[in-house]
Design goal:
- The chain has about 110 residues and is an alpha+beta fold.
- It has helices spanning about 5-10, 15-25, 30-35, 40-55, 75-90, and strands spanning about 30, 60-65, 65-70.
- It has a single domain (about 5-85), classed as Winged helix-like DNA-binding domain superfamily/Winged helix DNA-binding domain (Arc Repressor Mutant, subunit A).
- It is built from 5 helices and 3 strands, in the order H-H-E-H-H-E-E-H.
- Helix 3 (about 30-35) packs across helix 4.
- The longest helix is centred in the last third of the chain and has 20 residues, at about 75-90.
């Protein structure tokens, strides 16, 4: 499956989801364990997890009656590679001309 970087960026645009991702970076957790850590309801945590799953950032496994969530390292690597690629292209880009009346560099 191909990771859609745009979906990952959209998923982590929300602060609560970034906090969930940061927590899951420490290891897997159940929905209940995550809900105990954040000042939002368990249904809200579940909704955030669903968005993270849709972006393929989080994988969920049912073990008995508990849903265990863990980060998908492939999604994190795709995001990191995209950011590194953008940064590398930016470093090679011509600077903005600072003289009055000068437009952006021609491409």
């Amino acid at each position: 499956m191909t990771i859609e970087v745009g979906a990952v960026l959209t998923a982590v645009a929300d602060g609560s989801r970034r906090r969930i991702v940061a927590r899951l970076a420490q290891g897997p957790a159940t929905t209940g364990q995550l809900a105990e850590l954040f000042p939002i309801s368990r249904p809200a945590v579940s909704q955030h997890l669903k968005i993270l799953q849709t972006a393929d950032l989080v994988r969920t496994t049912l073990v008995g009656r508990h849903r265990w969530h863990e980060l998908n390292p492939d999604a994190l690597h795709a995001l990191a590679h995209w950011a590194i690629d953008v940064a590398a292209r930016h470093e090679k880009a011509p600077p903005l001309r600072r003289t009055p009346g000068a437009g952006p560099p021609a491409f």
